[in-house]
Amino acid sequence: MRTVWQLFITFFNIGAFTLGGGYAMLDMIEKAVVDRHHWIEKDEFWDMITIVQMLPGVFAVNTALYTGYKIKGLWGAIAACLGAIIPSIVIILIIAVFFLDYKDNPVIVSIFKGIRPCVVALILSPAIKMFINAKVNWKTAIFPIATVVLIYFFKVSPVYIILVTIIGSVAFAFYSQNQLNKSKS
């Protein structure tokens, strides 16, 4: 029961104190689940991030569900998920009640203008970590570069890129296995 409570508190704190959504949470999630609690090994953490990015739904919720389920099964998944979403629900309710009256207030406008660059940095930092942990080298750099070009310049849907990547990876795995079997014969 203690670990279930720890999952809830951990993801509640992450959800309450992170601006910028799921990717901005990555550093806090990694520090909590890998470094502090040692619930997940670093390599498995980055594999998990790869998986939850491809799933439909909210990134932070998917990460909480995966982590909670891995650590404590269904109750761990529920606790981590509730911990991740309750702060957002409360904050959204508060904003919905009070923000409309103050949205044009110069102080509020200035606060949001100041927060925006910080959010960019909070998202950029994990993006760099993801790039490093993906072990991209000069041979594989073409894939992230091509992805950025296709999405940004040619407006290709990421869904198509993911599907092509899955199909290409499966085909390459079959090809590699076939070559290995031929070399053994």
Helicity, in percent?
over 70%
Q: How much strand? A: under 5%
User: Could you say how many structural domains there are in total?
Assistant: 2
Q: Gap between N and C termini, in Å?
A: 54 Å
Number of E-state strands: 0
Q: Please state the average pLDDT score.
A: 90
- The number of helical runs is 7
State the secondary-structure class.
mainly alpha
Taking the sheet with the most strands, its summary is:
none
List the helices and strands and how they pair.
Elements: H1 2-16, H2 22-36, H3 42-54, H4 59-102, H5 106-133, H6 142-152, H7 158-184
Helix pairs in contact: 1-2, 1-4, 2-4, 2-5, 3-4
Describe this structure in words.
The chain has 185 residues and is mainly α. The protein has 2 domains: 2-135, no CATH class; 136-185. Helix content is 83%, strand content 0%. It has helices at residues 2-16, 22-36, 42-54, 59-102, 106-133, 142-152, 158-184. It is globular and about 75 Å long. The relative contact order is 0.10.
